[in-house]
Specification:
This protein is 39% helix and 15% strand. By secondary structure, the protein is of the alpha/beta class. The structure holds 5-S-methyl-1-O-phosphono-5-thio-D-ribulose.
Length: 347
């Protein structure tokens, strides 16, 4: 993945993102430094995918408050908290957003006895750390994930959990990139991922450009390709993993997991430990984002149902832990019983 989808500009005073709503047809980079633009970019999925949302929020919080003219730390803190709380309203499901905002807050509090300028410097340092750690995490996830795969395998993925959803290497696609470097010749099937087509627009874009064998399928073809024996493993990312292993990911993931179980295909969830939320005991505690009905009936400029027809548009679903073969993090591979194995990751 050559494009870094979320980063700071050279002067380190603007957030730079590739506008993912325009892909694959146009590669347009946006430079943002005000909270409203950054909030809008997250909300509208110009930057999306759990790890990338966290990085955008951290860099966004830094660049938004960098311009502050606050005369003292108390005033600066008030401004910082206002932007932080505003960003927290952008998208509810991916816990990485809240995780990154919490990390930035903790760092602020550690430096609170310093000058405003020193605190700004510390916020830059923390956001750059979040970015750098994400790159390392992706590579480690790739390594652990690859240990479960064999050359020539057929792999099914859903939505986009690749470089575009992170700092440039991805989660579910990380083992695929690593395997590609080692000549594994995977055959990747990418679900289109209705309604916003992250699979069609983003996953095939990045895998095709990387020279990886990728075939696009409509979401409703997953069962068929499994039955035809084309799929040896399902690899998906995650937006929030509860303490018992229940996992929120892009709408449609839970259906794939049920199918995979029926056909005896392993279902792997890949994500950094920042996506694990031990405060959520089960999937019931995960807030699922409901998005505009227009995305379903009028997604890409053409109305597909009569005006007035109701549409339901939850952006995520929760896969019950019982359908998940393993959760692959940068710290290693965990299996059932997830309540114990996930907890151990944080000890
Ligand atoms: O609505 P999106 O595009 O932000 O949803 C993204 C997903 O569901 C991804 O699968 C998930 O964030 C994992 S990204 C490594």
């Amino acid at each position: 993945m050559t494009v870094v989808p979320v980063k700071l500009n050279e002067l380190k005073n603007k957030l730079v993102i590739i506008d993912q709503t325009l892909l694959p047809n146009e590669e347009k980079f946006l430079e943002l430094d005000n909270p409203e633009e950054i909030w809008e970019a997250i909300k509208k999925l110009r930057v999306r995918g759990a790890p990338a949302i966290g990085i955008a929020a951290a860099f966004g919080l830094y660049v938004s408050t960098l311009k502050s003219k606050a005369a003292n730390v108390a005033q600066f803190k008030k401004e910082f908290e206002e932007v932080r709380d505003y960003f927290a309203t952008s998208r509810p499901t991916a816990v990485n957003l809240f995780w990154a905002l919490k990390r930035m807050t903790r760092r602020f509090e550690q430096e609170e006895d310093k000058t405003v300028d020193k605190i700004k410097q510390a916020l830059l340092d923390e956001s750059e750390k979040i970015f750098a750690e994400d790159q390392e995490m992706s590579k480690a996830i790739g390594k652990h994930g690859l240990s479960l795969l064999k050359p020539g395998m057929g792999l099914l993925t859903h939505c986009n959990a690749g470089g575009l959803a992170s700092s440039g290497y991805g989660t579910a696609l990380a083992p695929i990139y690593l395997g590609h470097e080692k000549g594994y010749n995977f055959k990747v099937y990418a679900d289109e991922t209705r309604p916003l087509l992250q699979g069609a627009r983003l996953t095939t874009y990045e895998l095709y450009k990387a020279g990886i064998d990728v075939t696009l399928i409509c979401d409703d073809m997953a069962s068929l390709v499994m039955k035809e024996g084309k799929i040896d493993a399902v690899l998906v990312g995650c937006d929030r993993v509860a303490a018992n292993g229940d996992t929120a990911n892009k709408i449609g993931t839970s259906g794939l997991a049920v199918l995979a179980k029926e056909y005896g295909i392993p279902m792997y969830i890949l994500g950094p430990t920042s996506t694990i939320d031990l405060d959520a005991s089960t999937g019931e505690d995960i807030k699922i984002e409901l998005r505009d009905e227009e995305e379903v009936v009028n997604g890409f400029g053409r109305r597909t149902a009569l005006k007035g027809v109701k549409a339901y548009n939850p952006a995520f679903d929760v896969t019950d832990a019982k359908y998940i073969t393993a959760i692959i993090t940068e710290k290693g591979i965990v299996m059932q019983p997830y309540k114990e194995s996930l907890k151990k990751l944080f000890e």
